[in-house]
Design goal:
The chain has about 100 residues and is mainly beta. Helix content is about 15%, strand content about 45%. It contains 2 helices and 6 strands; from the N terminus they run αββαββββ. The chain has a 6-stranded antiparallel beta sheet with strand order 1-2-3-4-5-6. A hairpin with a 2-residue loop joins strand 3 and strand 4 (about 65-75). It starts with a helix and ends in an 8-residue tail after the last strand. The relative contact order is 0.25.
């Protein structure tokens, strides 16, 4: 429920991302996309009314590739992973891939 409320509040603060952005920390990285969340595993975890607000993401953490979906929450990207884990990454950390 907390996630659903935060998603609603985040809509007002959501910046426009063009295509994809990436944040890296050593060999770990998170890639955010403008595309609609496509992971059925994640969408099943989220209240139906909130699903359209989620966008696709992927991460490489400790050498493991993970599928995720995300939404802006204040000044951070709130990520939900297919295993139910969640994470946050400050929006200031993201850059266009180059």
């Amino acid at each position: 429920m907390r996630f659903a409320l935060l998603c609603t509040a985040a809509l007002l603060a959501a910046p426009a991302f063009a295509d994809e952005v990436v944040a890296s920390n050593g060999s770990d990285s998170v890639r955010l996309s403008d595309a609609q969340c496509s992971s059925e595993k994640i969408l099943e975890q989220i209240e139906a009314s909130m699903r359209p607000q989620l966008k696709d993401a992927s991460a490489m953490i400790s050498g493991q590739s993970l599928k995720a979906c995300w939404v802006v929450e204040g000044k951070v990207a709130h990520l939900v992973y297919e295993d139910g884990d969640e994470g946050i990454v400050p929006l200031a950390e993201f850059r266009k891939p180059g």
